């Protein structure tokens, strides 16, 4: 429940529904009946955060525990933040309206490197000291934790987070809450709690590790202390059918980015695209059964009122029983006028049978990600897609009534030439031509092809983690070359700002020396760096210059295979030897078969489950 002071401000801001709570399915508990209060903070706007599946899952799971009350907190947009600061209103949680300083845990999900400044800004708005060392006297309260994909390299914000969750959170989060409950009952200190938490698999406490550097700026050593483990191993959930999944979601009051029911169908990916961090972080592939998915989808639609279900995964058409699943879903979705969408289809997985199953209620545009225009470059990045597969798939879709196709590419990939860039435009033109060559295309309608090109960012735990990013100037030159190569108005060209991609690379591959830059940025009020309204690269470059950091050292430098990387003390299950082999194969233009065809010995079989373990067992 929001305060009267907040209520007075709402008429002065855009979208006041972002700040009031009170939605259908929100969880309200009596403060006297709970032992732990957890502020789940999403470091972006309400519309972005309320679309995030991980937040939906963990919010519901925490609240399924009687002694925990989890509430939602989002970053206020610029107008609201200004009014909150002016009127001395601290950042608050939506369910109770209480300031986040009243909470035992303040947890952040890290989905994007350019949200790091929002993490620090939200702590500031909540009157929470941003540095871990400045919170040590607070006792067992205001413990700042973080998880999510960007936690795979936590070093650029290591000075601000008490503990990180590494890997999948459903089990480890609850284990930490139980430890906290016990430590509080035994009057343990904050330091004692953190040292005990570090013994739990999947927990990383940065303050328990010292880092030394070589004269050239690279890392010399990474040393644990106070009995902290030398290597932090990720947490992984193997049994997807018995994994907690909510039967309802909080239904937003305002339109959000992805305003639909979302059902996770499997985790991991069999493909091994060499640029794709998620494809390596979430290995091995683990599937839910069609029966479980069907039951959970139906419950979600009944409890939320949504008329669309998105089947979430890294590659939906790689779900081994996709046709069986869609058949089950269609038994009730057609009668109840619910659309089923597959947002992550591969071009080699879209068949007539799948098409007939997903066009039952309404057709939206289809999205495919060839990633590179030329076959040579697709082999380099291990995107095992042939041009004729893409064109055949588009022809099938056009014959089924689709007229809109979105194609996603990357610019700046390792070994890329300007000829490779021009091939993106050529491939887009071939898709346009395929529409008009299709005898069954929608008569009287024009085709719309959108070509979106993001800038390649080398990420940790990928075969390209050692690769340099193209300079900003080179990326801009390639973007212009692609634009000039498009000769038809039937293709819409979108591209990402290369300035933000540069800073993303700095933070993605950075070390603890960047914490000082983050601290200064927080002092100067940096926030929403992922939004063009707020981002200013020059301000960041000024900070880097002040403290003697060359950002190109992190973004544009090729690293040697024997260098100690800032994230080498963290184990996501894929061996460094495998990543090195894959990097070398990229320079030979040699693809690697996907996991269902052949085990490539990446290391993830050690979890003794999932597709890679099953494949290896069948080969023995």
DSSP strand tally:
19
Low-confidence sequence ranges: none
> Would you tell me the overall average pLDDT?
94
Radius of gyration: 24 Å
Largest sheet: 6 strands, mixed
Give the CATH H-level superfamily of the largest domain.
Cobalamin-binding domain
What is the CATH class designation of the largest domain? Alpha Beta
Please state roughly what percent of the residues sit in beta strands, choosing from under 5%, 5-15%, 15-25%, 25-35%, 35-45% or over 45%: 5-15%
CATH domain topology of the largest domain:
Rossmann fold
CATH architecture of the largest domain: 3-Layer(aba) Sandwich
Structural class: alpha/beta
Helical residues, percent: 25-40%
Pick out its properties.
Transcription Regulator spoIIAA; 620 residues; six-stranded mixed sheet; Rossmann fold; 3 domains; four-stranded parallel sheet; single chain
Question: Can you walk through the features of this model?
Answer:
With 620 residues, the protein is α/β, with parallel strands linked by helices. It has a six-stranded mixed β-sheet. It is globular, with a radius of gyration of 24 Å. The mean pLDDT is 94. The protein has three domains: 4-233, 3-Layer(aba) Sandwich (Rossmann fold), CATH 3.40.50; 260-362 and 590-620, Transcription Regulator spoIIAA (2-Layer Sandwich), CATH 3.30.750.210; 366-513 and 549-571, Transcription Regulator spoIIAA. It has 21 helices and 19 strands. The chain starts with a helix and ends with a helix. β3, α5 and β4 form a beta-alpha-beta unit. α5 packs across α17 (514-523) and α10 runs parallel beside α11. The relative contact order is 0.10.
């Amino acid at each position: 429940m929001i305060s009267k002071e907040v209520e007075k401000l709402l008429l002065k801001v855009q979208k006041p529904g972002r700040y009031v709570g009170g939605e259908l399915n929100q969880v309200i508990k009596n403060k006297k009946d709970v032992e732990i209060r957890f502020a789940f903070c999403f470091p972006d706007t309400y519309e972005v955060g309320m679309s995030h599946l991980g937040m939906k899952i963990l919010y519901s799971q925490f609240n399924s525990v009687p002694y925990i009350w989890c509430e939602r907190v989002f970053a206020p947009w610029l107008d609201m933040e200004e009014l909150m600061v002016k009127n001395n209103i601290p950042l608050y949680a939506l369910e109770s309206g209480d300031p986040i300083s009243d909470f035992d845990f303040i947890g952040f999900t890290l989905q994007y490197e350019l949200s790091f400044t929002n993490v620090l800004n939200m702590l500031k708005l909540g009157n929470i000291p941003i540095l871990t060392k400045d919170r040590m006297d607070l006792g067992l309260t205001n413990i700042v934790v973080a998880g999510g994909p960007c936690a795979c390299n936590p070093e650029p914000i290591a000075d601000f987070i008490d503990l990180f969750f590494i890997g999948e959170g459903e089990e480890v989060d609850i284990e930490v809450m139980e430890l906290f409950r016990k430590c509080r009952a035994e009057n343990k200190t904050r330091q004692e709690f953190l040292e005990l938490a570090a013994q739990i698999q999947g927990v990383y406490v940065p303050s328990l590790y010292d880092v030394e550097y070589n004269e050239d700026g690279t890392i010399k050593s990474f040393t644990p202390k106070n009995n902290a483990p030398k290597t932090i191993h990720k947490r992984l959930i193997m049994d997807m059918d018995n994994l907690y999944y909510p039967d309802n979601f909080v239904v937003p009051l305002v339109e959000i980015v992805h305003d639909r029911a979302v059902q996770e169908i499997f985790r991991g990916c069999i493909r091994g695209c060499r640029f794709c961090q998620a494809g390596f972080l979430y290995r091995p592939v683990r599937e839910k059964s069609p029966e479980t998915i069907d039951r959970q989808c139906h419950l979600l639609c009944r409890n939320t009122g949504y008329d669309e279900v998105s089947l979430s995964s890294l590659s939906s058409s790689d779900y081994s029983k996709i046709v069986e699943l869609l058949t089950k879903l269609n038994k009730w979705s057609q009668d109840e006028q619910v659309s089923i969408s597959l947002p992550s289809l591969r071009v080699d997985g879209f068949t007539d049978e799948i098409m007939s199953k997903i066009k039952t209620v309404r057709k939206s545009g289809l999205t495919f990600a060839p990633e590179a225009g030329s076959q040579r470059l697709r082999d380099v990045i291990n995107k095992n897609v042939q041009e004729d597969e893409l064109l055949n798939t588009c022809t099938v879709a056009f014959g089924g009534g689709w007229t809109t196709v979105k194609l996603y590419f990357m610019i700046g990939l390792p070994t890329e030439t300007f000829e490779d860039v021009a091939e993106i435009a050529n491939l887009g033109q071939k898709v346009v031509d395929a529409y008009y060559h299709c005898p069954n295309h929608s008569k009287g309608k024009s085709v719309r092809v959108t070509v979106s090109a993001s800038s390649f960012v080398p990420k940790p735990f990928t075969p390209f983690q050692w690769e340099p990013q193209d300079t900003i100037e080179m990326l801009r030159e390639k973007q212009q070359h692609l634009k000039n190569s498009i000769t038809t108005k039937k293709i819409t060209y979108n591209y990402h700002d290369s300035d933000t991609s540069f800073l993303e690379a700095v933070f993605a591959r950075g070390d603890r020396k960047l914490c000082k830059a983050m601290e200064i940025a927080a002092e100067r009020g940096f926030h929403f760096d992922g939004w063009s309204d707020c981002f200013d690269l020059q301000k960041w470059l000024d900070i880097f210059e002040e403290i003697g950091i060359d950002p190109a050292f992190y973004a544009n430098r090729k690293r040697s295979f024997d260098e100690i990387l800032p994230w080498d003390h963290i184990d996501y299950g894929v061996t460094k030897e495998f990543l090195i082999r894959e990097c070398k194969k990229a320079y030979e233009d040699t693809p690697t078969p996907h996991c269902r065809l052949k085990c490539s010995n990446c290391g993830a079989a050690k979890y003794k489950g999932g597709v890679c373990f099953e494949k290896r067992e069948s080969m023995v």
